[in-house]
Design goal:
It is a single chain. The protein has 153 residues and is mostly beta strands. It has one domain (24-152): Immunoglobulin-like (Sandwich). The chain has one helix and 13 strands, in the order H-E-E-E-E-E-E-E-E-E-E-E-E-E. The chain has one helix spanning 2-20, and strands spanning 24-28, 31-33, 38-47, 51-54, 68-71, 77-86, 89-93, 98-103, 108-116, 122-128, 131-133, 139-140, 143-152. The strands form three sheets. The chain has a five-stranded antiparallel beta sheet, with no helix packed on it. Strands 1-3-9-6 form a four-stranded antiparallel beta sheet, with no helix packed on it. It has a four-stranded mixed beta sheet with strand order 2-13-10-5, with no helix packed on it. The protein is elongated and about 50 Å long. It starts with a helix and ends with a strand.
Length: 153
C-alpha cells in the first residue's frame, strides 16, 4: 500500500510540475485588410533559453510530433496556401536518428496567408506543440488558443 501511495504522489508531482512549466510564450497581432484582400497572419513564439519546438513541416515518420496549428473554420476568411515556418533550423538528432526541424530560443513562428471575406473577421484556433529543453531533454506538450482580429479599413 505504501508503494501505491508513493507512486500516486510521484505521478501527481510530475504532472503538476509539467503543468507549471511554461517555456513558450506566443504573440498574435491584429492585422488590417479590406474585404477581398489577402493578408498574412503571424503566430510568433518566444522561447526560454535552451528550449525549442518542432516545426510544422517536421517529418511525421521520424518520431517527434510536429507543431500543428488548427484554424477554426469561419465564413469571414479563407486560408490560402499552407502554413509556413519562420526561422526554422535543421540538425541531425541522435535520438530520432534523422534530421529534425525546429525553432529555438532565437525566435520564430508561423505565417498563414488568408483572404478576408467579411468585414472585421476574427481568426481563432489552437496550436498543439512539443516544447523541449536542450539541456535536460525534458519535453512538455501544451496547447495554446489564439485569436487574431482582422480590422476592416
Amino acid at each position: 500500500m505504501k508503494h501505491i501511495i508513493i507512486s500516486v504522489f510521484a505521478l501527481w508531482f510530475v504532472e503538476g510540475h509539467n503543468q507549471l512549466l511554461d517555456p513558450a510564450d506566443w504573440e498574435f497581432s491584429s492585422v488590417t485588410a479590406k474585404v477581398g484582400e489577402e493578408q498574412e497572419i503571424t503566430l510568433s513564439v518566444i522561447l526560454d533559453d535552451s528550449w525549442y519546438i518542432y516545426s510544422n513541416d517536421q517529418d511525421p515518420d521520424l518520431g517527434p510530433k510536429p507543431t500543428e496549428v488548427i484554424f477554426e473554420a469561419h465564413p469571414s476568411y479563407k486560408l490560402l496556401d499552407g502554413l509556413k515556418t519562420l526561422k526554422v533550423k535543421e540538425k541531425y538528432d541522435d535520438i530520432w536518428m534523422g534530421n529534425v526541424r525546429y525553432i529555438d530560443e532565437s525566435g520564430g513562428g508561423f505565417v498563414q496567408k488568408i483572404r478576408v471575406l467579411k468585414e472585421n473577421a476574427v481568426i481563432r484556433g489552437t496550436i498543439v506543440y512539443s516544447v523541449c529543453s536542450m539541456v535536460t531533454g525534458q519535453c512538455v506538450f501544451p496547447e495554446e488558443d489564439f485569436e487574431i482580429k482582422v480590422i476592416s479599413q
